[in-house]
Predict the structure.
Amino acid sequence: MIDTSDFRNGMHIILDRDIYTIVEFQHVKPGKGGAFVRTRLKKLTTGQALEKTFRAGEKMEQAMVERTKMVYLYRQGDEYVLMDQESYEQIPISIAMLGDQAKYLKEEMELTVLTGDGVMLGVEAPTFVELEVVETDPTFKGDTVSGGGKPAKLETGAIINVPFFVEVGDVVKVDTRTDSYLERVKK
């Protein structure tokens, strides 16, 4: 059993018989009333996000989850095929298990597969990926004065918002947790 003071980002807890990952947490001690912990959780099996508030010191069960590195090989219909790097065993997983992270998958990308009691619970894509921009609007003189950005389609099909100076052929670094542009990668 753990309590709210043990919370760490990436920790897995059991809540209502499901396993959740703590994405973000914040201890709050208001001037009046008891302290509490505000969390943002992600359900491992479906990727569903949940915001939940716990009383400070509330106890819960920690989930034991094993992490295994695998490589994404290819897409086959409604499944993605991953390969275990140690045993070379190929494992098909459903699109639903990857959720929104699937839009950043590129062949030969290393993924982390989460298992508990021998059952696959979820798949984590890398937090940061570098992808090439294949389609975006051209930049016109004066666009940068107003700030903001423009949509850009990446080589995997994902669409993110990028600054005006990014052009087709540029490689950009993307945070897969927030779907946000971080920087342009120099070649």
Q: What stands out?
A: Residues 95-98 form the longest helix (4 residues).
